[in-house]
Structure formats: C-alpha cells, structure tokens
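Below is one record:
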Amino acid sequence: MSNRLERFRKEMAAFEGAADPARSVERGHYVPHPKKSLADKIAGQIALRPSSTHLLIGGIGSGKTTELLIARDRINELEDTYAHYLDVSLEADISQMNPGVLIAMAGVAMSELISDSGHQKMGESIETIRKLAYGYQERFFEYNPAYDPPEPPPEYWTRFVERKGIIPVGPKVPEEIQKLLAAINSIKQILSEKYGTIVLLLDGLDRLYEDKLFLELIQDIKVLSGLGIGVVLVGPIQEAYSQYKNRFESSFNSFSYQPCFDVVKDPDARDFFAKILAVRASEGFLEQSSVARLILYSGGMLRDLMNLTQSAIEEAYLSGSDNLQPAHVDVAAQSFGRAKVFGISDEALDTLERVSREGKFIPRTEEDMRLLVEGKILEYRYPELRHAVHPALSPLITKTKV
C-alpha cells in the first residue's frame, strides 16, 4: 500500500464522527464549546436533581448526541448517580411508536445493567421485562375428550399463541404496563445499591415529525420520573414552533435548545469549528483557505462539516493532490448542495428564495417545517436570532428557479 493511500485513509477515518459520535469521543476528538456547553448544563442540572427530567431539541446534526455522551461521562463521575445513553431510533421505527415503548426500552436497558449476582435475585423481573418488551410465545394444553385419561398429553393437544411485545409497535395494554413498571421498580432497587440514581439519556426522537405522537410519548417520561429515574430526552426541532410548545416545556424540569453555530457572525463559532478540523486532520493536510471554506459551507452544522470534509478528501485523492485544497472543497459543496435541492417543490423554492433575500423565516406550514428539520433552512440564535438558507444550497436556488 502506498504512503499516499495510507495517509488519505487515515484522514477519511478521522472524520467518521458523523456516523458514530461515540467513536469521536473515544478518540479524543471532542472540542469544548467556546461558551457554556449543553453537556455542562445537563450534567450540572442532573448533579443537583438526579431524578429530574429535561428536554433537549435542535436540528439533526447540530451536535446533540456528542453533548449527551460528554454529559453522560461527566454525570458518571458522581458517586451517587449513573447515566446510561440509549438511541431509541435503533430499537424501533420512531414514527410508529406507541405510549409505553419508552418505558419498555428503559426497562430493557436497566435490566442489562444488572450484574451476574443481581441476575440471581432479579431473574423473574428481568424475564418479565424482556417478555413484555419483545413479546413471547404462550403455550396452552387443550383437553381432547377422545382420549381418557388425557395422560400424558399428546403433542397435538398443544396450542401456541404469539403475544406481541410493546417494542417496537405493540399496543398499549394497561395491565402489561403495570407489570412492566413493577418489574422495573424491583430492578431499580437493586441498581440503586450499586449506582445510586439512574439517569436515562434517550436520543433519536429528533427525527419524529408528529407533534401529537411526541406529546403522547412524553407521558412515558412522566411515568419513569415517578419511579425516581432521571431522564434527558432529545426531541425534534419543530417543537420550538409547535402549538403544543407550552405543554412540552411544562412536562419537563428544563428545556434546552441546540441551534446551529453562526459561523458567519460569531468569531468564537468559527474558531470552534477550526479547532474541530485541526484536532482531526494531520498537520499540513488542510490549507487555511480550505478550512475557511469548509466552515462556511457547513452552515454551522457539525455533521455537515464532517460530511463535507470527507467528500472534499475524496475529491483531493481522486484528483491526485497530496493535500486538501479550496477547489476540492468547492466541488464537495456543489455536490452536497445538489443533493439537498433534490425533490424541493416550487413552493419550497419560493420560500428558500425569500429567506435568502430577506433573512427572515416563520414556519407556518408542514412544508416550511420540513425545510427547517431537513437543514435546508438554518436557525441561529447567537449572537442574534436569524435564519439563512444552507450555504451549500444557496447558490443553486436562483439557478433552479431559472
């Protein structure tokens, strides 16, 4: 293998954080925020009130998962509190979830924390949680009067009935939920002896589009809190504009918002993104003008910064270059913008053109909200509240209209 290929593979691997933020944290790629981070805020709130509940919303790719993972590590430095991270979107189709699913997921996660010695005491509770969460097969023996006495029972007397689990989309059955809560409470008592208060960091619901469903799922958080379990829940960005916004906020002890970083108007944000690139790339690989372009085209979205950088690295390798130059970033940004413009309706294009021209955006329709959720329109809150079309998409709007 050539030294050049080996080097480029290493550069590509350094920006894999978009796929798995946990690996980035493990590799030491985390860069503290220029101001007080969400990780600091969440960890501090949990330290004061371990069994409290918190809602965290923000755009997809804005860095919420990384902040949750850092908060988890800081919470776990406390002697009497233990935080466990769980991506619920990996367990079920979030658009099809019903009330009770988050409780079942919490139960499974907590049962996995029981040590071998604890398993002996809690075997029945663990089995109950798993059966109710994932479903089970129930066996019945039916008496056949043609055989007397019915002993031993012939095999064809046996009847099996499939019982659906609560995960992923099972119906909400009050009796099953009560059994589940009783089992969770028993396990919690054992866990509290070793860990103290259990705090669940539930990620992945930022891709949920339905306000009413999210409102129903919040009931699960209230139930878990009633058992003395702390919860940090990640929610979708549109909840900041929802008609249920007040109900969402009042259901939690705190409400936090992770906006995009304004790399245009906030010098600290630009420095923050520059440090993220510097801590990952090898010395001399990124030209300074390339760094500036990557930051600008990212729009202040951390995941977009990672994806754009990887695309630019690929372009640099294929072009025969030994480092990443501005021209490679421009090609990557054009490709990224074309992907974002695909499937946009004429009405949405009118909206994007207006936002690009006026810098103002108030989402009123479902399509407006989708532009915000999908990161085609970006929201900034510091140093001032403003909206902008994603910079990789902006050059294509006029061309597309023409």
Remarks:
- The mean pLDDT is 87.
